[in-house]
Amino acid sequence: MTLHANDLVDTELHRAVSQVGLDVEYTRSRGNTMWARGKDGGEIPVTDFISGYGSLILGHNNPEIVARAKELLDRDTPVHAQVSLRPEAASVAAALNRIVHREFGTDEPHHAVFANSGAEAVEVAVKHAEMDRRLRLAELLVAVEEHITEARGAIAQGTAVLAPAVLTALGLPATAAPEVALDALEARVRAFDDHTHPAIAPRLLSLVGGFHGKLMGSIQLTHNPQFRTPFTELAAQSRFVPVDRPDALRAVFEAERTPLLDVSVEDGVVDVVERDAPVFCALLVEPVQGEGGIVPISPEFAKELHSLSAEFDCPLVIDEVQTGAGRSGAFFAGSLLPLRGDYYTLAKSLGGGLAKTAVTLIREARYRPQFELVHSSTFAKDAFSSGIALKVLELLEADGGAAYGVAAERGARLVEALEAVRAEYGDIISDVRGVGLLVGVEFADRSAVGSPMVRQTQPAGLFGFLVSGFLLHEHRIRVMPTGSAPNTLRLEPSIALTDDEISRLAEGLREVCAILRDQDDARLTAFVGARTF
Length: 533
Fold this sequence. Notes:
By secondary structure, this protein is an alpha/beta fold.
């Protein structure tokens, strides 16, 4: 059997996307443009609205970031210097703290744990949250022991008596010797807590439609069953809660609540009280769900998330991997709601499109220094990727954060153009939504009334890929559907997006809509047999 090089990497994926013309080789890129290798060997410019799934807020091969990369390499910057001082990483952490303080109106320090990807940053957050949860549980059990000792001392000194209700619950008469009653009480508390303690496994919560990565742990937090189901036996499972349903979230919290018994001594009375065990490891939230179909969280739901997570002592992990680093019109999309977390995860655009880097920020109130001794990553916080991240932060923060204003303005202009298309073709495009330069275009479900091709591809989840292939070959525009909402095209261009590029996208979508309205399958698929690249 003879295998070619392309048969050894993503073979099935390439075979599938070749059916809709997405098996294209790109030879170079700059700004919002990528050049595809043509059938004749030439280069064909394509406007990129995918931008590395949100990794390129400053565009492909931004000249200033490229110059910084060359500078770092030319001076032999050490990449591998593990277990040493890493001043570049410290500078990134300091810069991110300044941004957190400004956007969320706080002065609380946030500790930084570095990683290599968004999924890894999510796993860092969950691992740390689980360590914190287990330590809080241990601290609570120690406190119970201290309270038992306090009660025994008070009984021995004659400064306290057992509450009558406790004696009744223990089946003891009011005349029972205090020491005997306290022994029975201690045995009851220990038996209850010893039985409950082993069953206190971490409860993880995520939102329906949420996406948090595809590693062994993070995939359990990703809602899409197609991604998650093959691996459900590998790690703790998440409870998925509908977006904008605080009542459903409260119901999950109440159902998972787990009490431990404790002893109190107040006003000369020894009593039994219930304490909530720390069972909730983390609740993960994206300010705008990317893979879930570009679904923004509402300010009202954000407020409820804060309230409920505080009430049930469940840390909030705000996943800013796709929305962070300026894409929303602010550095943190959560700051626009506001949605403040105990953890923030950043990646994608933080590396400027050149470096693979990620950061998990942990607020001081939750931070456990012990974590530093049990978690590490070979390439995390290396001087090269940290140096690139510093340049990205410098560019985003320049001129009072002018880049954020550009992202907001360009995003508004993009949405305006797309809404104009929807106004003409409301039967084809059902919604345009998003924040800043993270925008979704949702096509209406026409699986029952559309052309044979639409009736075939929409139920199979392939319709968005077919439209993407058409726009690529007929209009030289690169888009892609979201993984969990395949009727929704995702648009994540850089802040270099021009009016002309927006107009060409709108023109391409108008043609798609006209074709779908006319049910012209021949026109929709003509590019497959007439490809130039």
